[in-house]
Specification:
Strand content: 5-15%
Number of helices: 24
Structural class: alpha+beta
Helix content: 40-55%
Mean pLDDT: 89
Distance between the termini: 29 Å
Low-confidence stretches: 1-11
Number of strands: 19
Largest sheet: 9 strands, mixed
Oligomer: single chain
Bound molecules: adenosine-5'-diphosphate, magnesium ion
Shape: globular
C-alpha cells in the first residue's frame, strides 16, 4: 500500500519505463532472483510450453515470496477464471507459526503449483457432483505472477477432480498447443526448421461506459443487471458524432490516466484510450501479446476499470447494451499467428502474391471461419450480446469475412492459376506540402464486417464487451489448427511444396469463397445474400448454444485434445444456465421497478393533472381542459396495462423456473419473458416522455449519458 502511494506521487509520463511492470514477477525479476539453472529451465518451459520440472518449484516459490513481500504483499492467491466470466481468488497469508510462538513467512513449491479451492460454488455444468467438490488450480508459468492489492496473484488453470477443465483458461492453453503442433508442421514443410514454436497473438480492444456513481445508484436496473431495462431515448445521442474521438473531459481524462498507470504497473500494455461513438462511451486498446497473457490482461483491465472508476466517483459499465437505442459496447479480438523467430504468418509483406506462406495462412483462416461459423457465433453468445448484434452498430449475427479487394484479387488469381502483379503501395498526397506523404494500407477498413483482415491480423468484432476472450480464442485456435492439420497432411506428402500450396489455396477458394464479403454487413441486402450463400444466421444465444455439442464439433475438439464430450456438454449447460439466471434477475428487477416506482410515478402525474384540471375549472368553467383529460386517460390506461403485464411477467417467471430441461427453459426465457419485458418497456418509455421530471422515479438517459 505504502508502495502504491509513493509511486503515485512520483509518476510522471516520462518515467513510465521505470514503473512499467513494477508489480510483475517478470523475466528480469526472475533472472535477478533465481539461480541460473532454475531460471533456464523455467524459461524453457515458458518459451516452449513444456512442463515444469517439479524440482525447481521450491526455488521459484521462494524467490516469488521474497519479491512479493518486498512489494508489500502479505497474502498469496491462485488467480483463475472460472466459468462465471470473471476471475476468482482465494487469499491465504504467507504466515506459518514458528517454534517460538511467532510466525515466519512461508510459501512452498507445492503451494505455488497446486491449490484446492472449494469448487462447489463455481459453475460446473454437472461435471462435479457436490460429494466430490474438490477442484484444483494449477500454476500457469507462461503468464507472470503479479502483486495486486497486497496479494501475490499466481495465474492458474482450474480443473475438477477428474481433470476436466472448469475454467476458461485450460481449453485455451490446450488450443494454443493444438495450433502450435499443426502450424509447426506447415512452417517445417517450407523448410523453416529453425522455428520451434508458433504462438497465437491477441490484442483485445475494450469498450466501456462511464456513468456518475450517484446517478447509477438510483437505478436498480443498472445496479442489478448492469443495463437499463427502461429509459426513453434522449433528444441528443450520437447522431452528431461529437463524442467519437472528441476531446476527453477532465474527469474522464483523470480516470484514464490513473487506469493506464495501474495497468502499466501490472505490465499490461495499455496503449490507446479514446472516446467511442456513444456519449459516455470509451475504448482502451493494449499492445497485442501472446494469447493467454492477453486474456489474463484483459480480465485485469476489466477489473481495474471498475476499481479505478469507483475512486473517481464513477461506475464503469461493461454490459454489451446498457442503453437501448444507443450504441452498445463490444470487444475486438485482433488475432494472428507468429513464430518464435519473429515471423507474423499473416503479414503480407511487400509482395503478397509471392508470399506463399502468408497466402496459405490466409486461406487456412478463410476455410476455418467458413467451416466453423457456428463456433465463432457460439463463442460470443450471451444474453447481453444478443441486444447488440445486428443493431446497426455491431456486426449482424451472420459470420462473414472481409479481405479487401487487393487480397481477394490475389487469391482469385491463384484460384484461376494466373499470376497477379502486386499493386505498388500507393503513396498518398494529402495536398499540403508540409504534410508528409503517407503510405496507404493494403486494405481499407470495413467497420461492418464481423471478421476483417486488417493489414497483418484478423479482427473479430462480434465479442461482447463483458466477455472473456478465452472462449473465442479457444474456438479460433482449434478450428484453424484443424485446417492446418489437413494442409500439413498434403504438404508433407507433396514433391513440390510450393505447387501443392498453390493447389491447396485454389481448392480452399473454390469451396469456401462464399464466406468472403467485402460489402456493407449492416445492410438488409446482405441478410438476403447471406441466406442465398447458405451462411448461418443464428439470431440469438438460444439458437446458437446447442450447436456446440453437435457431433462434428465434439469430434473436432476431441481430435485436438482441447475439450472432450463431457466438457463440451457441461459448457453448454453452464452457458444456458447463465442465460436463464440473468434473464430471471432482469425480469424480477423490472417487475419491482414497475410495481414499486414507475406506476406510482405515473400516478403522481395523473394526480397532478387532476388537481390542475379541477383548479382550472374552479377558476372558470369554460377553460378547456380536454388536453389534460386526454393525458389522464392515456396514462390511466397505461398504468392498467402495466399492472396486468407486470402480473403476467411475474407469473411467467414462476412458470419458467418450473421447466425441467435447460434448453426449453432458456427458449422460454427468450421467447416469452423477453417479449413481455419489451412490451412493458414500450409503455414505460412512452410515459417517461409525458410524466413531469419531478415525478419520474429514475435518472433519465439524458442525465446518465451527459452528466459527467
Ligand atoms: P482499430 O481501432 O483501428 O481496430 P487499434 O489500434 O485501436 O485499431 O487496435 C488494434 C489492435 O490490434 C491493438 O490492440 C494492436 O495491438 C492489435 N494488433 C496489432 N497487430 C497484431 C497482431 N499481429 N496480433 C494480434 N493483435 C495485433
Ligand atoms: Mg478495432
Amino acid at each position: 500500500m505504502g508502495n502504491f502511494l509513493f509511486l503515485k506521487e512520483v509518476f510522471t509520463l516520462n518515467n513510465i519505463s521505470e514503473f512499467f511492470g513494477i508489480n510483475v514477477f517478470n523475466d528480469s525479476v526472475m533472472q535477478k532472483m533465481l539461480p541460473n539453472d532454475t531460471y533456464q529451465s523455467l524459461r524453457n518451459a515458458i518459451n516452449q510450453g513444456t512442463s515444469i520440472d517439479s524440482g525447481i518449484s521450491d526455488a521459484v516459490a521462494n524467490a516469488m515470496k521474497k519479491w512479493a513481500i518486498s512489494k508489500g504483499a502479505t497474502h498469496f492467491t491462485h488467480w483463475f477464471q472460472p466459468m462465471t466470466g470473471i476471475t476468482a481468488e482465494k487469499h491465504d497469508s504467507f504466515i506459518t507459526p514458528d517454534d517460538n510462538g511467532g510466525v515466519i513467512m512461508e510459501f512452498s513449491g507445492k503451494e505455488l503449483i497446486k491449490g484446492e479451492p472449494d469448487a462447489s460454488s463455481f459453475p460446473s455444468g454437472g461435471l462435479r457432483a457436490t460429494f466430490e467438490a474438490r477442484g484444483y488450480t494449477a500454476w500457469d508459468p507462461s503468464s507472470y505472477a503479479f502483486v495486486k492489492d497486497g496479494t501475490l496473484c499466481i495465474p492458474t488453470a482450474f480443473c475438477s477432480y477428474g481433470g476436466e477443465a472448469l475454467d476458461q483458461k485450460t481449453p485455451m492453453l490446450r488450443s494454443m498447443e493444438a495450433l502450435n503442433r499443426q502450424a509447426l508442421r506447415i512452417v517445417h514443410a517450407f523448410g523453416m526448421t529453425d522455428v520451434k514454436r508458433v504462438n497465437t497473438t491477441v490484442g483485445p480492444e475494450q469498450e466501456y461506459f462511464l456513468i456518475d456513481k450517484h446517478l447509477y445508484e438510483k437505478r436498480p436496473d443498472l445496479v442489478f443487471c448492469d443495463r437499463t431495462l427502461i429509459g426513453a431515448k434522449p433528444p441528443k445521442s450520437q447522431e452528431m458524432s461529437h463524442h467519437y474521438f472528441g476531446v476527453i473531459k477532465p474527469r474522464i481524462a483523470a480516470f484514464m490516466k490513473e487506469l493506464d498507470q495501474e495497468l502499466w504497473k501490472l505490465g499490461v500494455l495499455a496503449k490507446t484510450e479514446h472516446n467511442e461513438a456513444a456519449p459516455a462511451q470509451h475504448e482502451l486498446a493494449p499492445v497485442f501479446t501472446t494469447t493467454n497473457i492477453a486474456a489474463d490482461h484483459n480480465q485485469l483491465t476489466m477489473e481495474l476499470m471498475k476499481k479505478v472508476a469507483d475512486r473517481h466517483g464513477l461506475v464503469c459499465i461493461l454490459h454489451e447494451k446498457p442503453f437501448a437505442r444507443v450504441n452498445g459496447s463490444g470487444k475486438h479480438n485482433n488475432w494472428s499467428m507468429s513464430t518464435d523467430t519473429g515471423i507474423n504468418l499473416l503479414k503480407p509483406g511487400k509482395n503478397p502474391s509471392d508470399n506463399i506462406l502468408f497466402l496459405l495462412s490466409l486461406a487456412a483462416v478463410i476455410e476455418a471461419v467458413d467451416r466453423h461459423q457456428d463456433l465463432l457465433r457460439i463463442s460470443i453468445a450471451s444474453a447481453g450480446n444478443d441486444h447488440r448484434l445486428g443493431c446497426a452498430e455491431a456486426p449482424p449475427a451472420i459470420v462473414s469475412m472481409f479481405l479487401g479487394d487487393e487480397l481477394l484479387e490475389i487469391l482469385e488469381a491463384v484460384e484461376q492459376g494466373i499470376h497477379h502483379d502486386d499493386v505498388k503501395r500507393i503513396k498518398m498526397n494529402v495536398g499540403a506540402d508540409v504534410i508528409p506523404y503517407i503510405r496507404r494500407d493494403n486494405t481499407d477498413r470495413n467497420r461492418t464486417s464481423p471478421f476483417a483482415f486488417t493489414g497483418n491480423k484478423f479482427e473479430f468484432r462480434m465479442l461482447g464487451s463483458s466477455a472473456s476472450v478465452s472462449e473465442t480464442n479457444t474456438m479460433l485456435n482449434t478450428m484453424v489448427a484443424d485446417v492446418l492439420m489437413r494442409y500439413a497432411d498434403r504438404l508433407e506428402k507433396a514433391n513440390d511444396v510450393n505447387s501443392e500450396a498453390n493447389a491447396i489455396i485454389r481448392d480452399t477458394m473454390r469451396e469456401h469463397k462464399r464466406i468472403i464479403f467485402n460489402g456493407d454487413g449492416y445492410s438488409e441486402e446482405w441478410q438476403l445474400e447471406a441466406e442465398k450463400r447458405g451462411l448461418l444466421n443464428l439470431k440469438s444465444t438460444v439458437d446458437a448454444l446447442p450447436l456446440f455439442s453437435k457431433k462434428e464439433n465434439i469430434e473436432l475438439f476431441e481430435r485436438h485434445g482441447v475439450l472432450n464430450a463431457t466438457e463440451i456438454h457441461s459448457r453448454v449447460d453452464i452457458a444456458l444456465e447463465n442465460y436463464c439466471q440473468l434473464l430471471n434477475i432482469e425480469a424480477l428487477t423490472l417487475v419491482g421497478m414497475i410495481g414499486r416506482d414507475v406506476i406510482s410515478g405515473i400516478g403522481k402525474h395523473i394526480e397532478f393533472l387532476c388537481g390542475l384540471t379541477k383548479a382550472k375549472q374552479t377558476a372558470s368553467p369554460d377553460i378547456n381542459t380536454t388536453e389534460e383529460t386526454n393525458i389522464i386517460k392515456t396514462l390511466s390506461n397505461d398504468t392498467n396495462k402495466l399492472y396486468t403485464l407486470n402480473r403476467t411477467l411475474s407469473n411467467a417467471v414462476n412458470d419458467a423456473e418450473k421447466i425441467p430441461t435447460l434448453s426449453d427453459k432458456a427458449r422460454y426465457y427468450h421467447d416469452v419473458i423477453l417479449g413481455l419485458m419489451e412490451e412493458i418497456r414500450i409503455i414505460a418509455d412512452r410515459d417517461e416522455e409525458i410524466v413531469a421530471t419531478e415525478f419520474w422515479p429514475y435518472p433519465t438517459y439524458s442525465e446518465l449519458l451527459f452528466k459527467i
